[in-house]
Amino acid sequence: MQSVEQYMEKYMAVVQEAVPEEQVLAVAVLSRAGSMGAAMAAQVSGAAYLGMSKRGKAASGGLPMNVVVAATPSRVIAFDFRPKMTSIKLKGRAAEWPREGLQVTAERNKLATRLTFAWPNGAAVQLDSNRSIGQYNRMNDAFMTLDREWRFTFVN
Q1: What does pTM read for this prediction?
Q2: pLDDT tens digits along 31-50
Q3: Which of 77, 100, 111, 142 makes the best surface tag, with the fewest CB within 10 Å?
């Protein structure tokens, strides 16, 4: 079984190939806002799931359910992807945003850490770093520890 670090090294290599013009500083596997809660609600009520899913899609800027997000010195790039055994296959760029003026807040809850990426023009996108079990709970650590550079503000 591979370690989290080995998985993330492979993910970084795949993403770096897709962004040859700039160094990729870190990657994270993120989901639409509220996706874990919506999945749990689906077990009880289809209508609740649909409502939560619709809100999550809107808050996440219409991104796919799961994305690999890369941080470069000048941009944040979200990729649609497909898991591939111990790596990933990128389907294409789902979104790209400038890092200039970017403010990121991170709010932890029981199911995920909600990241809100906000720009000076008022645009904002929310994505979740879902909690996992065992070593996989550390998959997004490198991305999350860019806090000094990202100016993360953690809200408990």
Answers
A1: 0.81
A2: 888 655 545 545 655 665 55
A3: 100
